[in-house]
């Protein structure tokens, strides 16, 4: 799942304020990207993640909003970057605060090396899918600070991506895309990423295409969808200086259509990902592994195609605070070594910015506490730092209403205003 799929509450608000000289200022908030999908409850007791992931046991941390207790056991070893330890991170917020919280989450995890930053482009209109000026800058700066970091960017394939567009319209738009009508949007996005010195961004293109939520879904016309995917990848790869990797990331399970029917081919896919949340209700982790098009099928398919795997979205969901799911999923990733994974960290999925899952939070923090490249794992003795103004629902980047020119007032002012202000230049037309 992801943007708004079955768990998201769309928050769309427009506020207006009068300015001097009769100018009208409008603030607009876009819908967030949304994120959600998954598996597991009722599992038999399972061992903690096996080597190389050492586990330390902090006492009942309650997420970032309450102090974490100290640990009783010291870990022994941790995977290193040199040895190919999987890169991990979390989705923490939609915009610049998501970048700032990476360091806060790292402190909560005892200085663990979070090497992955993850966000989403809004899919409401083409101008946002191209990457609005200013939106990607902070993420690109974070990526450039360390050579081994990954910036993961979910990119919609069509505008109006969460507006319940009919199958007939989806089919028509997919065929337009396959014919090249939208190439220029993706060329522009690629150029912006290269200009921002983020040419090696991991592009999660058209995620969860096997579901029913998004306009970029595959089901209405799989052949057109695959041709369109190839067209986008070919267009973005043609931009000088690019080093993009393209991640094909369906929902776990069959969903609306088997995701294998949407696979566009090895020549335009670099990573085979999977979004895997703890759902449906009552499903055990073993069933999530063995179900058709489930976790084992994903690993086997990627191996057969010679591709690394990833988990761009994972977390808790239908089965509440499920420590068994958390333990088993962490162990699964340690065993199968994805190129990267990013936990969706807000309620109901998360463990740091969500106080609803203290048991799973304890498992997550114990397993990843202090995980760095070469240094031993320290004891989690410091209280967990609180994230600044945690938001349970992703915050969208403000969108400009038609005929509006945005005012750059700074992140702090825009945070308290709830969006950007812009000046309308057609205000007189409403008073004739």
TrEMBL record:
Entry superkingdom: Bacteria
Matches recorded under PROSITE patterns: GH26 (PS51764)
UniProt keyword terms in alphabetical order: Glycosidase, Hydrolase, Signal
Active site: 208, 313
UniProt KW Signal keyword: yes
Annotated segments matching region Disordered: 372-401
A Gene Ontology molecular function term of the record: hydrolase activity, hydrolyzing O-glycosyl compounds
One family name in Pfam for this protein: Glyco_hydro_26
Keyword Acetylation found: no
Domain (GH26): residue spans on this chain: 67-376
Signal peptide: 1-30
Composition bias type Pro residues, residue spans: 377-401
Family, per entry: Belongs to the glycosyl hydrolase 26 family.
Protein name: GH26 domain-containing protein
Species of the source: Streptomyces liliifuscus
């Amino acid at each position: 799942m992801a943007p708004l799929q079955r768990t998201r509450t769309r928050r769309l608000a427009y506020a207006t304020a009068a300015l001097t000289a009769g100018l009208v200022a409008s603030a607009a908030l876009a819908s967030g990207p949304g994120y959600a999908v998954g598996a597991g409850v009722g599992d038999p007791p399972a061992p903690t993640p096996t080597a190389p992931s050492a586990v330390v046991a902090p006492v009942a941390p309650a997420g970032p909003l309450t102090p974490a207790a100290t640990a009783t056991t010291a870990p022994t070893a941790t995977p290193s970057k040199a040895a190919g330890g999987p890169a991990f991170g979390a989705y923490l917020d939609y915009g610049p605060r998501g970048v700032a919280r990476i360091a806060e989450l790292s402190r909560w995890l005892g200085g663990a090396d979070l090497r992955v930053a993850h966000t989403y482009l809004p899919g409401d209109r083409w101008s946002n899918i191209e990457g609005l000026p200013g939106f990607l800058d902070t993420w690109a700066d974070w990526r450039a600070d360390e050579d081994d970091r990954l910036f993961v960017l979910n990119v919609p394939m069509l505008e109006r991506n969460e507006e319940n567009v009919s199958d007939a319209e989806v089919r028509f738009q997919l065929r337009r895309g396959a014919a090249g009508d939208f190439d220029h949007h993706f060329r522009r996005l690629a150029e912006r990423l290269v200009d921002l010195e983020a040419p090696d961004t991991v592009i999660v293109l058209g995620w969860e295409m096997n579901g029913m939520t998004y306009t970029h879904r595959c089901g209405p016309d799989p052949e057109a969808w695959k041709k369109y995917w190839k067209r986008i990848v070919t267009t973005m790869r043609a931009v000088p200086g690019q080093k993009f990797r393209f991640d094909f990331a369906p929902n776990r399970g069959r969903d609306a259509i088997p995701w294998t029917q949407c696979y566009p081919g090895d020549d335009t896919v670099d990573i085979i990902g999977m979004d895997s949340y703890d759902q449906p209700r009552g499903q055990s982790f073993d069933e999530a592994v063995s179900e058709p098009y489930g976790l084992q099928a994903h690993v086997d398919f990627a191996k057969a195609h010679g591709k690394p795997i990833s988990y761009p979205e994972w977390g808790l969901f239908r089965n509440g605070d499920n420590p068994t799911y958390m333990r088993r999923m962490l162990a699964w990733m340690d065993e199968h070594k994805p190129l990267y994974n990013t936990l969706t960290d807000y309620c109901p999925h998360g463990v740091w910015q969500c106080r609803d899952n203290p048991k799973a939070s304890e498992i997550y923090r114990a397993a990843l506490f202090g995980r760095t490249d070469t240094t031993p794992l320290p004891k989690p003795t410091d209280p967990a730092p609180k994230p600044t103004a945690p938001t349970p629902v992703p915050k969208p980047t403000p969108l400009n209403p038609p005929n509006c020119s945005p005012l750059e007032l700074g992140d702090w002012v825009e945070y308290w205003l709830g969006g950007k202000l812009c000046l309308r230049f057609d205000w007189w037309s409403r008073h004739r």
